[in-house]
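User: Predict the complex.
Assistant: Input components as received:
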Amino acid sequence: VTTQTDLAAAYGKFLAGNAPVHSSGQANDAFELYTLCLVLQAAGEEGSRISFESSLGVANPSALRFRTSPDRIFSTTADYTHAVIEFADELRFEAHMGVYVEGLAGGYARVRRLDHRSSRGSILPANSSPPEESQYGTDGRMQVLHWKPGDCSR
Amino acid sequence: MSIDSEKVESVLSLLRDSDSTRWVADQVLSSFSQGLSMNVKDAESDDRFNALEPANLTTRERRKREKYETTRAYTEQEKLKLLRDALETLYVELPAIQVASLNALAEFGVTTVEFVPPDEPEQAESSYTVNLATANSEQQSLARNFAAFAEEMG
């Protein structure tokens, strides 16, 4: 029969100080990274070319950098990384982790599509129209995402 | 107090002793407090749910209830299993998905991933790095350590 002393000794010997993550946030990061890899794997199987790019435009940085919690999609503070998924028919997607998605109806929205015109990224529901100019910041990048209720999947 | 209950209390106390694992204890306790949910129809075969069922329900009332979920408290044995499953997720499954992610990224030449707090840092978040070599070497020892502890935990 295992006593509490035995259990504490076993915990000290085998588990104490060995946690692979140190917060629920880090556990979430691991699952989010795994999800991103599944997306990239699926995109690769569909014949896309995959690369990585930082907010400042550095191609294939040696270490990928992601956010520990959600933030605006464009940030130069820590030069975060996103994946670039390009198909032969010129469709170009970006896959981001830890990005705010704001819905006017207060519901959740899935990030579905990236506009493929030059570097002016716009993440929109697949069935929506291209964004108006006013939705871009002065640097040509979308700052905050908005779309009408009903546009997004629920 | 039953042996299972003592084990649960002991392990939760050990988890709460460290900043790295306190969140695990908090999440497990939260699950305990929410109880075990089950479809009413499925719960009919569970005596522990039946004990909570009003005795004088008509057939019509019983059929109507089948559409709903019902909840009961975890037994001490179920609590021990839930706690064990949580530790397995932390020490076995999570390292495995980290390694799987990093292996997938290695195909793109990426071996290191940094997680950096966003521009508006949240409380208790700090930067950290995961890399394939470390994750690979730790994964198997963490799984072995968990197996040894789980044997002691019963």
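Confidence is low (pLDDT under 50) at residues 108-154 of chain A.
Let me know if you want any component modeled separately.
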